[in-house]
Amino acid sequence: MRTSKITPIGVGIFLTLSVNVGAGDFKHITIDGSFNDWAGIQPVLIDPSDTTSSIDYAAVYIANDADYLYLRITLHVPGDPFTSRENIFIDADNDVATGFSFGGIGSEMLIQSGVGYEERAGGFNDGFNFNGLDWAAAPTVAATNFEVRISRRAAYTSAPPGPVFTSDTIAVVLEAETSNFSSVEFAPDSGGQTYTFAPTPVAATGNSTLVTLTGSSWQLNASGADLGTAWREIGYDDTQAGWTSGAGLFGYTTNASAYPAGIQTPVATGRAAYYLRTHFQFTNEPASVILVASNYLSDGAVFYLNGAEVRRVRLPSGDVLFSTAATGGPSVKGQAELAGLAITPLLIGDNVLAVEVHQTSGNTAELVFGMSLLAATQYPAVFTDPSQPPDRSVGAGDSTTFSAEFIGTPPLSLQWLKDSNPITGATAERLTIEPVLQADAGSYSLKISNPFATNLTRSALLTVTNSPVRVTDSTQPADQTVTEGLPASFTVLAAGSAPLSYQWFKADSTGTNSIPDATNATFSIPDVRMSDAGDYFAVVTNPFPSSVTSRKAHLTVTADAIPPVVRSVVGTPNKITLAFSEPVTPASANAVTNYSLTGGLIVTGATQDPNEASVVVLTTGAQTLGTFYTLTLNNIFDRFNNRIASNTRTTFKSSIVIDGSFDDWAGVPLAFSDPQDSTESLDYKDVYISNDDDFIYLRVTLWAPGDFSDFHNNLFIDADNDLATGYAVSGIGSDLLMQSGGGYEEQPGAFNNGTASALDWLMMPGGASTNVEFRLSRHAIYDNTGLPVFTTNRIAIVLEAENTGFATRETAPDSGGYVYTFVAPSQLTISFNQGQVTISRSGPGRLQSRSSLTTGSWQDVQNAPNPYLVQPIGQESYYRVIQ
Q1: End-to-end C-alpha distance for the chain, whole angstroms
Q2: Cis preceding linkage at 825, omega within 30
Q3: DSSP-assigned beta bridge partners for residue 728
Q4: Which of 548, 547, 543 lies closest to 464, judged by CA?
Q5: Which has more pLDDT, 357 or 159?
Q6: Are 313 and 339 in contact (CB under 8 A)?
Q7: Gap between the Cα atoms of 506 and 520, Å rounded
Q8: CA distance 715 to 813
Q9: What per-residue string of b and e applies to 543-566 under the rule 16 or more CB within 10 Å gives b?
Q10: Is residue 869 within a helix (H) or strand (E), and if so which, with residue range?
Q11: pLDDT of residue 845 exceeding 80
Q12: Strands of 543-694, DSSP E
């Protein structure tokens, strides 16, 4: 629930550590929940763990590019920081004197659940007055790590229009609330976190060398100690004990002539892992370059850029431990291996490239590492691994994917070939064939080109293997015994080269015949009849070619001797919906003479549901809401001529069914009407109220279509009709607020003091309409105390609607509340004493009589006292109370 009841931040001692208030970080961030592109970005603030009543912020990171402001938010415990209880306040001009004053900033924009609300005029919320917010957030489930983006081009749509972000510096406050919407958590704890947008760097205009093979200085740790993961990070101290300086090449070898340069920095032998770090500067737009690494590597290594893994060479997938061995060496020792590195971790300014070198198990004769790194704006399209894509043998019916690693500056053109011929539509980095068929056998290659080169991979031979079809479960299909009218299903389990084809057969005394359209692994009979008895089997084939026949399953069909019974009955003030245990015949279902009702009611019509033969709808005379009636049924037959038990009786209570049809409101009088007086919110028109022992029912019509379930619309209920208790609103003392189907306690006089449960709320229809009905349980309780909400037989209600800025624009009634007294169903008591009949009634209503239970019209007994005395006159008379 969204309210304007924000608690200002009080004065106190706060422990938030503000880490960075200077210039921002330029970064292109993809909102996908992976966070690798945040590598190297330091938190602007760290917040202590200080609440268990709401989201508990841990750290906030901020970055930007030319188009977006990015935030990364971490939490101390898993949660969802983007509900209606968490807010991002943005001071878009970093001016505390403008906007809504909150947390030491002047907020121009509030973001809640991904929606932006204007605050530049100083109010808490002036509406959804933004274009181009372009919000995105990930992940969308409870977690401890989140990232969001907000467009820097967001603009106001209200007067005066214009951009939201007008300054290079902004301030941000994150706020979280309890389930009662009380503010308990802020980041930072006091004041706003300022951030200055980083300028967009210029695009690179040519290739530049960032790391040279022999000229760049590295820090090396060959101590044999396990350094864990901290050594990869940009802020790690690589001057401490165990680290030394050096330049490439690093290692030892007995084959020095194979390499383009000598070993400049020898290392100790026999280490499981060697750690290396080097710094380089980058000042251009990252998107304008690709990173090309040229490696001389005798074994395996993992490459990290600013703490994020960007390349792995000859090491297994998964976590790389200190003891993890490389899987081998290059095909040609001493030959450069090209590799593209991801640019997403690249920072403007200082960058750290970290490399973890691992030796191949059982091979300690050589360890060599050296590399250069190029930021390229013009680089030919080349493949980096001549062994890709590899040959493969695939079973027909399985899938396979071809790929080959490449580098090159855009624009790039890709085309997959089969047997040297282009494959239509195959222009992506990967080619997946699913399923593989015999016709797919052949040679596959990838052609890549850009303005500087065109290259073709090796041809990968795809061999398609075939296997004959076979039944994998000899017990299927299984024999079955089924009662007529019920479903039966048979399945065959088979394997073999794809595609598998199926055909089901039936064998009986007339012969063996294929079943039309029975061409799947499962064959079903939805409504079994006696004529379906027989043997069923399947023939499965594939193009091998091969064929197999399943076992024969015998279907035994037994006669249905079970009569239908009533499963459920629902009564509304003018109809009864019956559900039988099975389909019944239309002739018996639609005969009104097969039904009779107590209470003097007549069944005037009976109609079988055309889509569900087990459902019958009866129309009746006017039922009294909340009254119990007994329905008697006779001569209802199922499809197999089984008749329902004679004089089957079922009892139901007449109630309003919340289904959006409204026909059961026909006898409910109008409670009050409201004039057409709002175009900024819902505009209430007519309100009807009713009740039974369990529920309060409301029907609300609107002057124009709207969605009552939206959280801008409220129902205030004074559950004891006492203005002195509860929250004072529009002339009532509201004890319960209903919003979007949720109940909120207001009994102590506060706008929201907690939740209520056992509401059993139901509303129809959903979405925008001009007519809506809903119900609320009279057995609702307050969660704080466990006490019942409704304690008297009289309540008062107010309907309220707000504009997009949460300002009240409509109430119904316009002033004061509407008082409603719960109606108790009337009861008749008849007694006979000394030749005189006494009729007593409880509850409101008019006493009526007629001389026949089933025919004639009911007549009011004029001026009937209570009790009403009747002198026997030797003929039948029937009485009822109508409300």
Answers
A1: 39
A2: no
A3: 733
A4: 543
A5: 357
A6: yes
A7: 15
A8: 12
A9: beeeebebbbbebebeebeebbeb
A10: strand 868-870
A11: no
A12: 546-549, 553-558, 566-572, 575-580, 595-597, 603-608, 615-620, 628-633, 648-653, 670-673, 684-691
Predicted local confidence at residue 325, as pLDDT: 95
Per the DSSP assignment, residues forming a β-bridge with 59 are 46, 74
d(CA 160, CA 176) in angstroms, rounded, equals 31
| Mean pLDDT for all residues in the chain | 91
State yes or no: cis peptide before 389, omega within 30 of 0: yes
Q: Taking the CA atoms of the chain, what radius of gyration do you get in angstroms?
A: 39
CA distances from 586 to 134, 528, 607, 635 (A): 57, 20, 8, 12
Angle at 495 (CA atoms; ends 493, 496), nearest 5 degrees:
155
For residues 446 and 423, what is the distance between their CA atoms, to the nearest angstrom? 10
Q: What is the rounded average pLDDT of the residues 237-247?
A: 96
**174 DSSP β-pair partners:** 88, 187
| pLDDT band for position 552 (cuts 50, 70, 90) | very high
Rounded-to-integer distance, Cα 760 and Cα 775, Å: 8
Joined tokens for residue 17: 């550590």
Beta bridge partners of 124: none
pLDDT of residue 844: 63
Count of all residues that appear for the chain in the document: 883
Whether 167 contacts 143, CB under 8 Å: no
Dump pLDDT digits (tens) for 660-696: 989 889 888 999 999 999 999 999 999 999 998 899 9
Which residues, in sequence order, are CB contacts of 307 under 8 Å at separation 6+? 39, 40, 232, 233, 234, 345, 352, 354
For each of the domains in the chain, give its residue range(s) and CATH number, in order of start: 17-196 (2.60.40), 208-376 (2.60.120.260), 382-465 (2.60.40.10), 503-558 (no CATH), 566-653 (2.60.40.1220), 663-821 (no CATH), 827-882 (no CATH)
Confirm whether pTM is higher than 0.90. no
- In this predicted model, which residue has the larger pLDDT, 732 or 18? 732
Q: In b/e form, how buried is each residue of 805-839, taking b as 16+ CB within 10 angstroms?
A: bbbebbbbbeeebbebebbebbebeeeeeeeebeb
Average pLDDT over residues 150-178: 94
Q: How many Cβ atoms from other residues are within 10 Å of residue 405's Cβ?
A: 15
Token pair 């040519």: residue: 206
**C-alpha closest to that of 779 among 807, 743, 746:** 743
- Which is more confident, 405 or 22? 405
Alpha-carbon distance values, 334 to 213, 261, 267, 295, 301 (Å) = 13, 10, 18, 9, 16
Burial of 326 (0-12, 13-18, 19+ CB in 10 A): buried
Close Cβ partners of 36 (under 8 Å, ≥ 6 residues apart): 308, 309, 342, 344, 345
Residue 5 in this model has a pLDDT that exceeds 50: no
HSE-up of 540 (CA within 13 Å, CB side)? 25
